[in-house]
Design a protein that fits this description.
The protein is an alpha+beta fold. The chain is built from 14 helices and 33 strands. It is 27% helix and 28% strand. Strands 3, 7, 8, 9, 10, 11, 12, 23 and 26 form a nine-stranded mixed sheet that branches. The structure holds one RNA strand.
RNA sequence: CGGGAUGUGGCGCAGUUUGGUAGCGCACUUCGCUUGGGACGAAGGGGUCGCACGUUCGAAUCGUGUCAUCCCGACCA
């Protein structure tokens, strides 16, 4: 490809609306352009990158025994009603009507469609197990799209779905996919961590996410990990705490009594007033789960993890109650307390979930739904608790549940996930096969996603410097750029053309910068776009030397044109493992 | 959905307070000159200032409404 003809417009400045490096560089270097909020044009350079990630994904999925198909982007309401998700998916599902007023949606994921395909085509246990996948654009009407390709509304995804006759078969396929994912991300030059996670709205039991670890804001997930193998998304992480039992006796509280605690609306204020540690307080928070109030209890020094709480009460939506909702709840129970004085006492017919940290409290402090008062020296028998669950947000420094060493925390970008769905879709959609006994059985399903466009953006987050992108060879739009310093110099031009032709003939993806630009412009563009290798043909050609520059390391080496060609081919073949 | 901000050529911005008919840098075209880290000179092309209504002799500028975009929060694979 000739640079003079390559469709790319690099910008001198970053776009004003970009926040994270991948967004900034992909726009500045001419890979993408925003069409509307969360929706991007993939320009030729970007499309080459995406196709490479797609193809690596395709090769590894095929190698793992999955079969590619393609499902429609527009889906009918009826299938979503069968699964029950038309009601529960919420506003993220982009709904529309056709000319006959029939309701449709843009596919945010394809469980419903694939399940319908399977029940039509997979009638016998003899056909199972099967894994079907596609690579396609998805649309999710995100509340707040941001970070460019990292959280778009329209994005490219590989989604795979497996059908099995038993949990054992599903486990096997799940492990098979985990290995395929490791291969895919490794080949993309993108180290990932496989972490345990919550299974979220898609539902099911077991799930893992593949995270690209980053220390920037682009990592929207907190990942807790240990030097042993344990690692988990914060929505799923568990830990051991050092303190076994917290007893008020250590602060001289041995007697149960109600104390005046004026203006202690926060844990801090209460601790100061009573001169007790936060860990002695039973914190009580009101949540609204599927529009019903729920009381969550947790030790005062810890935080609630809302996803865990949501799972504990079996809700599909949860949020903290507003001040007005708390007031309404208090009024309905005949109390006059506000935030800070809420307690489980007298909360009849309200679900009360306590974190496991509450179990180990003795002679503790708790609100009793009376303004400016708290109960001290309380015990667990003083009120009703419906269930104890781990609903606690883990903090760094707490101990690994597996080996007991301190946990560390980092940020991660989720580029892939694998779920065990079980019969969540096959049962309600009556998607069954006949077993050996001729009996109808629902498929045991799994689903496996990779954000293709997000993976590309994550690769930029993981590989860049002040000057631009440093694409891993396997997913770079082109492998090499040949830069003649002066297009007016016949010798430089002919050597550059010769190198260009040799590389082309060797199957290397190469660009020659034939523009009549000053060298600074060419070098800046080469660095910005992120060609893994650059061969510069300049004045030293009179001594028979050109320069080979490696983008990743910045290493520059002088050598003859033939040596440069051979070196580059050698490097690229090694990187691509062919 | 709550809070904040912004909409002026492809990109980044000034002009709005004190209404008078649009400007700068980059990019683009042509010529000259230059060629190892975003040169320089000259001459050009491209916008009627998000949209609508209103006030006014006159609106990018004032008013009302509306749409869009971005940030923080809530939410989320």
């Amino acid at each position: 490809m000739r640079m003079s003809k390559l469709f790319v417009q690099t910008l001198r400045e970053f776009p004003a609306d970009a926040e994270v490096v991948s967004h900034k560089f992909l726009v500045k270097a001419g890979f993408i352009r925003k069409l509307t909020s969360g929706v991007y044009n993939y320009l030729p350079l970007m499309w080459r990158v995406l196709k490479k990630i797609e193809n690596i994904t395709r090769e590894e999925m095929d190698k793992a025994g999955a079969q590619e198909l393609l499902m429609p982007f527009v889906q009918p309401k009826e299938l979503w009603e069968e699964s029950g998700r038309w009601e529960v998916y919420g506003k993220e599902l982009m709904r529309l009507k056709d000319r006959h007023n029939r309701e449709m949606c843009l596919g945010p994921t394809h469980e419903e469609i694939i399940t319908a395909i399977a029940r039509d085509g997979l009638k016998s246990y003899k056909q199972l197990p099967v894994n079907l996948y596609q690579i396609q654009s998805k649309f999710r009407d995100e509340v707040r799209p941001r970070f460019g390709l990292l959280r778009g509304r329209e994005f490219i995804m590989k989604d795979a779905y497996s059908f099995a006759t038993s949990q054992e078969e599903l486990d096997k396929e799940y492990d098979n996919m985990a290995q395929a994912y490791k291969n895919i991300f490794n080949r993309c030059g993108l180290p990932t961590k496989m972490v345990q996670s919550d299974s979220g709205a898609i539902g099911g039991s077991v799930s893992h996410e593949f995270m690209v670890i980053t220390d920037t804001d682009a990592g929207e997930n907190d990942v807790f990990y240990c030097e042993c193998d344990y690692s988990a998304n914060s929505n799923h992480a568990v830990s051991k705490l050092p303190e076994a039992v917290v007893d008020g006796a250590s602060c001289g509280i041995t007697e149960k009594k109600v104390l005046d605690t004026p203006q202690t609306h926060s844990i801090e204020a209460l601790c100061e007033f009573l001169n007790v540690p936060a860990s002695l307080i039973c914190k009580c928070l009101v949540y609204i789960a599927d529009s019903k109030p729920v009381l969550a209890l947790i030790r005062g020094d810890k935080q609630i993890e809302e996803t865990k709480l949501m799972n504990a009460v079996g809700a599909i939506e949860i949020r903290i109650a507003t001040a007005e909702e708390i007031e309404e709840l208090m009024n309905s129970k005949g109390f006059n307390a506000a935030k800070g004085f809420i307690g489980p006492k007298g909360m009849d017919d309200i679900t009360i979930v306590a974190d496991e940290t509450i179990k180990a409290l003795k002679n503790f402090v708790v609100g009793i739904n009376e303004e400016d008062k708290h109960l001290v020296g309380a015990s667990l028998e003083d009120f009703r608790i419906d269930k104890y669950e781990d609903i606690r947000l883990v903090e760094a420094g707490e101990f690994c549940p597996v080996c007991g060493k301190p946990l560390k925390v980092t940020k991660g970008i989720e580029v892939g996930n694998i779920f065990q769905l079980g019969t969540k879709y096959s049962k309600p959609m009556n998607a069954v096969y006949l077993d050996q006994n001729g009996k109808a059985q629902p498929y045991i399903m799994g689903c496996y996603g990779i954000g293709i466009s997000r993976t590309a953006a994550a690769a930029v987050e993981a590989h860049y410097d002040d000057w631009g992108i440093k694409w891993p060879v396997a997913i770079a739009p082109y492998h090499v750029i040949v830069v003649p310093v002066s297009t007016n110099d016949n010798q430089q031009m002919s050597v550059a053309e010769d190198i260009y032709n040799q590389l082309n003939n060797a199957g290397i993806e190469v660009v020659i910068d034939d523009r009549n630009e000053r060298p600074g412009v060419k070098f800046k563009d080469a660095d910005l776009i992120g060609f893994p290798y650059r061969i510069t043909v300049g004045k030293t050609i009179v001594d028979g030397k050109v320069e080979l520059v490696t983008r990743e390391s910045g290493e520059k080496v002088e050598m003859t044109p033939d040596e440069a060609v051979n070196k580059v081919i050698e490097y690229i073949k090694a990187a691509l493992l062919f």
